[in-house]
TrEMBL record:
GO terms for biological process, alphabetical: cytoplasmic translational initiation; formation of cytoplasmic translation initiation complex
Name by which UniProt lists this protein: Eukaryotic translation initiation factor 3 subunit M
GO molecular function, one term: translation initiation factor activity
The keyword Calcium belongs to this UniProt entry's keyword annotation: no
GO CC aspect terms: eukaryotic 43S preinitiation complex; eukaryotic 48S preinitiation complex; eukaryotic translation initiation factor 3 complex; eukaryotic translation initiation factor 3 complex, eIF3m
Subcellular location: Cytoplasm
Annotated HAMAP family: eIF3m (MF_03012)
Length: 410
């Protein structure tokens, strides 16, 4: 089959037009095909001469699916490199956006036909663009294509750069919601990335702060999912779901109030409260796929964190045993698990049967925690200032002494 071999920028576009036209009319016979190919090439020449880049893009992309089905992957990439390059021909941002829409629409039309190649083309297309919103638009098309074509492994690494992308794109709240929720859903399919999935889901829910009730209701199902995901996650012990209006709306919801109560127990109460809740709501837990034994294991760790926050810095083994409802020989094992999970920093005084806590992780990081952190920072700054003042004062005193010693009476 013929391969596109461009000899100049203008010839490259016309070569693609000719190649795609010949491909489209290949079965019609020379008598029919040649006039049609000539007509389409003439149109292409006219569009180039008049600077009608959108019309040229539409012409070049018409036979996109034929190109994907009948051309080698290497040639497909070459052809689309030429097509995508049309966005660099115009300085009109509206025209660039229209060209982007025309090209991406074709690329995502059949996601199961060479999906990895389509995704690569979209990523290369993204790198050609200078308009932030166009970049976001192409990224979302690439993200959805990766999902539909089951090639998400190629786009997941880019999720680490989302914060910097957001600064560049400067997109609005609706677009952020779409982005965060799509990423969360992608990561949810990969069990090893459930923690990251939860992070993007909470980012999504956070965008609903300050919204009216009818808007909040749009996030109700995702709020439910966030609660279930948090309770299930064996390695997530801190979140700010309770401070989010999207989650708070569930507190008085006839259908989900009990689930909200469960979240509150996990973030503010201890094991005994959970056991009492389970006795009354075991069916609800089963309905959401929550395993009682796993919930107990997590609540024991959460309860130990709560004991660590009491302020004394010392937790008797006996109190840990009674609060976590475990045997004496399990106390140190639970403390070790909490240390491994980075929930507490502590030392175990086996002689005096106490745990000496130097630091703990708050289950909830809300307004109170921010205020506490601010107070600590102010105190730290004052202490540093005092140290600097003392050093400066000592230096002045020392310099004065040395000067006095240097005076000689003749």
């Amino acid at each position: 089959m013929t391969t596109v071999v461009p000899t100049s920028e203008e010839d490259a576009a016309l070569s693609v037009v000719r190649f795609a036209s010949e491909l489209a009319w290949a079965d019609a016979g020379p008598e029919v095909a040649e006039p049609q190919v000539s007509r389409l090439c003439l149109e292409g020449e006219e569009f180039i001469a008049m600077g009608k880049w959108l019309e040229l893009a539409s012409l070049m992309i018409t036979s996109a699916e034929l190109i994907f089905s009948k051309v080698s992957e290497k040639d497909v990439e070459s052809i689309f490199t030429i097509i995508c390059n049309l966005v660099t021909k115009t300085e009109n941002p509206d025209e660039v956006m229209e060209i982007v829409k025309v090209i991406t629409a074709k690329l995502v039309q059949q996601p199961n036909e060479k999906p990895a190649v389509r995704l690569k083309i979209l990523i290369n297309f993204y790198n050609l663009l200078e308009t932030p919103y166009c970049q976001f638009y192409v990224y979302m098309k690439a993200l959805n294509l990766a999902v539909d074509g089951k090639v998400t492994q190629y786009i997941i690494p880019s999720f680490k750069k989302i914060d910097s992308f957001l600064k560049e794109w400067k997109i609005g709240t609706p677009e952020q919601r779409e982005l965060f929720l799509t990423i969360s859903n992608v990561l949810k399919e990969n069990k090893s990335m459930s923690k990251d999935s939860f992070k993007f889901l909470t980012n999504y829910l956070a965008t609903f702060s300050g919204e009216e009730a009818h808007v909040l209701s749009e996030a109700k199902e995702e709020a439910v999912r966030a609660i279930v995901d948090f309770v299930k996650a064996p390695d997530v012990f801190q979140c700010d779901l309770l401070d989010m209006p999207a989650v708070g709306q569930l507190e008085n919801d006839a259908k989900y109030a009990l689930l909200y109560q469960l979240l509150k127990i996990f973030l503010t109460q201890r094991l005994d409260e959970y056991l009492e809740y389970h006795t009354a709501n075991s069916t609800l837990l089963n309905d959401y796929g929550l395993v009682h034994e796993e919930c107990i294991a997590k609540m024991r760790l959460m309860s130990l964190v709560d004991l660590s926050s009491d302020g004394s810095g010392q937790i008797p083994y006996e109190l840990i045993r009674d609060t976590l409802q475990i045997n004496d020989d399990e106390v140190e094992l639970l403390v070790f698990k909490a240390i491994t999970a980075k929930l507490i920093d502590c030392k175990m005084d086996q002689m005096n049967q106490v745990v000496l806590v130097s630091h703990h992780t708050d289950r909830v990081f809300g307004q109170h925690q921010w205020q506490t952190l601010r107070t600590k920072l102010v105190t730290w700054r004052e202490n540093i200032s005092n140290v600097i003042s003392t050093i400066q004062a000592n230096k002045v005193s020392e310099d004065g002494s040395q000067a006095a010693q240097g005076l000689v009476v003749h």
